[in-house]
Structure formats: C-alpha cells, structure tokens
C-alpha cells in the first residue's frame, strides 16, 4: 500500500522529466538540421534574444527568401530551355522548307486508318522518286545504276569481286528468298482475276517465268521487271514490282505483244570476210530460223574483200529464202560510228528497233526478245552488258582439242568476263536515236563513239536499261591497235586487248610457267630419290 502511494506521487515528476527530455531532443535536432547561410548557421533564439516567437519568424522569413530565389532560378532555366527548343523548331522548319519532297509521316496509333494511309502515301512517293516510270538526267556514264538479271536457277551479276562469279546460283539465303518472293508475288498477280474476261483464266506457274532484271537505288528501293510467257507465240506478260524498303508494291501489269516488232541489225564492216561468214552462220540460225522478225543492214567501207562479203550475204539469202537485208557501200576510211549512223538513217519504213552490232558478236534468239522487251520509244533504251570470251588457245591449251564454238559459249569465271566497260552493243528505237542526235561523226577509227552516244542518253529523260545478258557474247579475236589512233583511243584499245586474253589466274600460270616447271622437275627428282 505504501509502495503504491509513493509511485503515484512520483509519477507526475517522471512525466515532467520525460517532457523536458523530449523538448531537449527537439532543440538538439533543430540545431543540427537548420540550413546554413552563406557564412554562418542559423541558430535558434537564445535566452537573451527578444522573444522566442520573433526568432522563429526570422528563421521562417529567411527560408522563404531562399525558396523564392530557388524558384526564380528554375524559371530562368525553363526560359532558356524554351528558347533552345524554339531554335531547334525553327531549324527543323527550315529543313522542311528546303526539302519539300520529304513526306512527314505521322503514325497516330489512335487512328490506325489515318496512319496506314500516311504510310502508303510515303511508300508511293518512293515509287515516284525512283526511276520507275521515267528516266532521270545523270551527269556521267558512271552514275547509271545497272540492273542484274536472273532466271529460276541463276543470277547474272556485274559486281563479282574476287570471290563471286558472273553467273551463279544465289549463295546468300536473303538473296534467294528475295527473288523467290518476287516471282511468287508476280505469279499470284497474274493469276488474280481481272473481273473483265468471262473465259476461264489460264493458271500461271513459276515455270512460265522467262527472265527478270532488278536493281536497287539505295535511298529509294528495289525495282523488279519480270517477264512471263504469254498466251501465244511471241507474246509475253510483264510484271513491274517495286520494294520501297518495305512491302513489295505492284506498279503495273501489262500485255506485251512482240509478234510484229522488227529488229534491224546494223553491222559496220571493213574486210574481215572470214569473220563475216561466221557471223552469218549465227545470224541465219538465231535470227532467221528461230526468231524470224529481223532485218540485216551491212555498211561496208572500201572495196577490198567486198565481193566476197556480198557473195556470203547473197548465198545466205538464197539458201534461207531471206530477203530482209540491205547492203550499203562507202568509199571512205572505216568509222564504226559513221557506219551505224548511216545504216540507221537509211531505214525508210516504220519505227523500228535498232540493234547496233559487230561482226565478232554471237547472239541468241532469247537475246533478241530481251532487246525488244527492254526498249520502248520515248521511254527506254537497252544497253546490255555482254559476256566477253577469253582466248580459247589459253583456256583450252591443256586439252587435246579446242571445243566447238557452241560449247565454248558458257558463262564461267574461267571462260570470260562481263564486258562492263563496253557500250557498243545497244538496242533502241530509231526515233530515239534520231531525236538524240545520232553518233558524233567526227570520231574516226576504233572506240569512243559508243560512249559518246551512251552519255547522250544518260543526259536525257530516257531510262537506260543496263544489265548483263546471258545470250550475247563477244567472240575472242586478236586485237591490233593501229598507230593511227589517238593516244586516248590507243590506250583504250590496249586495255581492251589485255582484258581479252585470259583471267588473272590463267595469265599468272603463263607468267610463272618456268617456275612451275622447275618445281615439278624438283618434285620428280625427289620422288626418284625416295
């Protein structure tokens, strides 16, 4: 009982002590957490200060001033950021005004229909900017983007480097998948009903695919032109597709009827009767017998061997019942450009496809169709890259005999090369040739006239189709570079002569022939000793 009364009396004191302790701890905490000024720390009001209330008011007033300064600083930073953002906006606006063709795509996911319409508009603008419907003016012959050609099995490519081949199956999976996708899409487009014809539609398959060409413009997309067999002989279906760095889009579908499209093959010639006889064998088989829609114009310079050339031409005419030829004789120094120009202008019939050819060229009937399909009056001219044959004596020197000409004409790295520096073999409509101004007749002798004409087409609005073709060959012949040539012509002639002989590997075997024989001799001696 006494203990309980004492505890009750002590309890108020204990509570008082706890209150004092709590107040002391609060004061210590406030002293430790009070922010410092520039040179001194703010202190709580002490005993000798006017009053405790006035001290706290002074502290609060100073903190409010500090926060006010901090807010002013933040407002200045925000103003600076706004000014910088405004400057960037002006820069973007100026860039947009400078390049008005660029399309601003706003993909608003809340409105999918509008987003899809904007995307389609952008992709179609890529088609308009690319060289699909018309050509663009180019500064030099090196600015043209060449096509590459392909079939179901092979790709014929220009940029071979040291590891790739001029003709090969697509080794890279992405290239195989790309071409397979394009062919399948084209077949699907052909089999899609047009809703006009009531007759049962023909079902197209990949086996109807003849050939295609494609090229990529790095900042626009890839253009594909695919040719399929048509409903009758000499008729084709052509599908043009474009991949604008996105889904492939069908550009157009058209029927191409080449049944009445005549090709006038123009050959300038001086002497070389034996080569002309070989040329006429090829012309008779491919041009007369297989194709049948062809005319031959021979422009002959001088009189030496002229009768022999005329006899070859007349014999072919009689044996093949072929009357579509013209023989023009010029009593002047040989000029390839002059001969082609005279032959082109001599034609008096309807507009015709001109094939500028040489006597040492071998072509197939498939090439003649490519010549027709890749030319269009006022639209397109065709500059095929032909496959140039190496010297058969070097290629087949280790064989018992040189194979026949037809067996030699295979596209392999060891047998020849794509003659991508030559522009002499070309197909164009006569109207385009006349409108462009023809050849420069001041150029004499060998070389130069073809590049001059090629540049004229590049500087025009015509589309130049440049692609390697599997049916056009330059037959090897010993090249003589005459002293009468200008220094530039002579240099071009010598470069062409060096390129014609053999591949780097085959020429290397000839250069190091003595070392190779010495090595083989040593190996033979070592084998006898052992």
Structure, explained:
With 530 residues, this protein is of the alpha+beta class. Among the domains are: 132-190 and 203-257, no CATH class; 263-508, Spore Coat Polysaccharide Biosynthesis Protein SpsA, Chain A (Alpha-Beta Complex). 44% of the residues lie in helices and 19% in strands. It has 15 helices and 16 strands. The protein has helices at residues 2-33, 52-98, 112-129, 173-191, 273-291, 306-320, 336-346, 365-373, 392-395, 405-408, 430-436, 449-458, 487-501, 504-511, 513-529, and strands at 148-150, 155-156, 167-168, 209-217, 221-229, 235-243, 249-257, 263-269, 294-301, 325-330, 353-356, 361-363, 380-389, 416-418, 426-429, 463-474. The protein has a 7-stranded antiparallel beta sheet with strand order 3-2-1-4-5-6-7, with helices on one face. Helix 5 runs parallel beside helix 6. The radius of gyration is 42 Å and the shape is elongated. It is found in: Golgi apparatus, Golgi stack membrane. Keywords: Coiled coil, Glycoprotein, Golgi apparatus, Membrane, Metal-binding, Signal-anchor, Transferase, Transmembrane, Transmembrane helix. The chain crosses the membrane at residues 7-32. One of its GO terms (molecular function) is glucuronosyl-N-acetylgalactosaminyl-proteoglycan 4-beta-N-acetylgalactosaminyltransferase activity. Its EC number is 2.4.1.-.
